[in-house]
Amino acid sequence: MCYRLNRRPNVKQPLGARRQQINRVRSRSRARGEHPLRVIKQLWGFAKLRYRNPANNLTRAQTIFALARLTQRAAAKEQSWQV
C-alpha cells in the first residue's frame, strides 16, 4: 500500500521547489475531497453512520452529498454576485 503523504522539511534538509510543488498538489486534491465531508458533517450532522440497512445508508449518503453539492454551488454563486 502506498500512502501519499506530504513530506516535511527538516532543519538540516529543507524541501526543494519540486517537493513543495508535489506537496501542494497532494494538499489540493485532499482538500477537494475533505471539504464536502466537512459540509455534510457540520450542516446535517452526518458524523455517525447507521449500519442497520446498507441500502438505506447508501441512499441517505447519496442524497446528503447531492445536497452538499447544491449548497456549495449556491454559496459560490452568492460570492460571485458580491464581487
Label this structure with key terms.
83 residues; 69% helix; mainly alpha
Protein architecture, described:
With 83 residues, the protein is mainly alpha-helical. The protein has one domain (17-82). Helices cover 69% and strands 0% of the residues. The chain contains two helices and no strands. It has helices spanning 17-44, 54-82. The protein is flat. The relative contact order is 0.09.
Structure summarized in a few sentences:
With 83 residues, the protein is mainly α. Helices cover 69% and strands 0% of the residues.
Give the secondary structure arrangement, pairings included.
Layout: H1 17-44, H2 54-82
Helix pairs in contact: 1-2
Mean pLDDT across residues? 80
The stretches of 5 or more residues where confidence is low (pLDDT under 50) are none
Terminal residue distance = 45 Å
Number of domains: 1
Name the structural class: mainly alpha
User: What is the alpha-carbon Rg in Å?
Assistant: 18 Å
Helix coverage percent of residues?
Answer: 55-70%
What is the helix/strand order? HH
How many runs of DSSP E, i.e. beta strands?
0
Q: How many separate helices?
A: 2
Largest sheet composition:
none
Residue share in β-strands: under 5%
Global morphology: flat
